[in-house]
Design brief:
This protein folds into three domains: about 350 residues, no CATH class; about 50 residues, no CATH class; about 120 residues, Transcription Regulator spoIIAA (2-Layer Sandwich), CATH 3.30.750.24. It is about 60% helix and about 5% strand.
Length: about 575
Amino acid sequence: MIPDVPMATLKARLAPYMHRFRPRLLDALASYERRDFLADLGAGLTVGVVALPLAMAFGIASGVKPEDGLITAVVAGLVISLLGGSNVQIGGPAGAFIVIVYGIIERYGLANLLIATMLAGVVLVAMGLFKLGALVRYVPVSIVIGFTNGIAVLIGLSQLRDLLGLAIPKMPSDFFAQIEALASNLGSFNPYAFAIGMACFGGLFLWPRIAGGKLLAGDLGRAHPVRYVARMPGPVVALVTCTAVVAIAGLPVETIGTRFGGIPRSLPTPALPDFSWTTVKHLLMPTITIALLGAIESLLCARVADNAAEMPRHDPNQELMAQGVANFVAPLVGGIPATGTIARTITNVRAGARTPVAGIVHALTILLIMLAAAPLAASVPLAALAGILLHVAWNMGEWREFARLRHFNLPYRTILVGTFLLTVIFDLTVAVEVGLMLACAFFIYRMGTQFRVLPVAPGTVLPAGVQVFELYGSLFFGAVGKIDALRGQLPADTRAVVLEMHRLVLLDTSGLEALVQLHRELRRRDIALVLANVNEQPLSLIRRSGFEAVLGVDHIVPTVAAAFDDEATA
């Protein structure tokens, strides 16, 4: 019979293990002032304009319609700001998800992508609720850099079709299949699309220098119109300029209108995607992939924001729960996976944002522009969006890490390069899994090499027949071989072995079993085993396991000198 536990009692028992749901917005509004609103309003309008072209580009590159990217930016961005654990983080569709989403759609279909996203939302909420936000920080930086650079390469590769204007009906998701498709369709190269895309790509690199230099901000007065142009975000300037050139010159390039038929001027009606439990069982890996990447990206972004802004640090568990709710809600209106976005968050910080209200303004700004100016988006050339995404991919990758690899050890190089190649050739899930296994294997090897069994310093006077060895480090399953090897190092006249354990910081059950086996072997040879100066953790395990009783209380002594007593070494 299962005991009937009252709900109040159950909640009280689980409370220490569960995170209290409290959005950062509540704390921010408690002391909110007019100047805070003005700062958030300006920052929200700025980042909303920046996010508009990126949302469309991310949607198209992910294999969905541009309005799906916009809807994600509006709905998920609004929910993340309302419920999140950061003052300044901006959520929405992210470049890191492009390759993942495209591959899931290719393999499982759009409806199943929406289901996997909602399931990932549930996983993210559970992770935050049970205080697992800190665990994401334990992912080695070599793995993060490896898969981030790999995703950046895949984003760049996926944009070559629109950059070159190639007549490829649909790009495959596999790396080698993409290369084959691009190579076999080079005959349809469109020089106009290439010129537009490269002009956009190059312009995004030059714009910060132009806008911040004498060309646009020289000795002009504060109210000069050119100064207002200089303050406009680079992606917006590039998109408007390229669209105007294509429209005025009538260049034969593909646009949002020719491929997608434009963007609707309203939000879709919320609806559950069609699914069956049979299908859901096959979506385990896509769900884990979306949840894992969403958690890593959002918390990395929040940490970057903490370092860039002088305000309270983010709450990782609350942020995960907000990301989970956003990813559960967005698919109801056709949205794709969302997470924290570093570029837009940093833009938000630099624009002067103080509270999550700036993120709310950002989402509403995108919504208003979408509703008011949707017909104009039909003229946007896809080559320009490809140029913007190439710039995003370039900034996403930490390319200098490849040049710096020679300064790091072999495990770091192996994990980073291995994760990078597996991300490019296979997929993110395989890359992270293998990367974590390699990281664990190298860590175990390194910790095993740090454990040492050394004889007492030469010249030390010891009683006849007594051998003293000092243990250093952690005696765990990766280091037990050194204890086994100890048996063959004993002279024939040995009558007692003393293990000095002051520098033994950790003992696990495998290490304990090695000591038990050593004791049995020594006892068969009439040799006493004495443990001296045992630290708290090893001593606790020795007592709880019953080994203290087997060894004898008098054979665990406080100092090596005490082990020389006749009683201890008898």
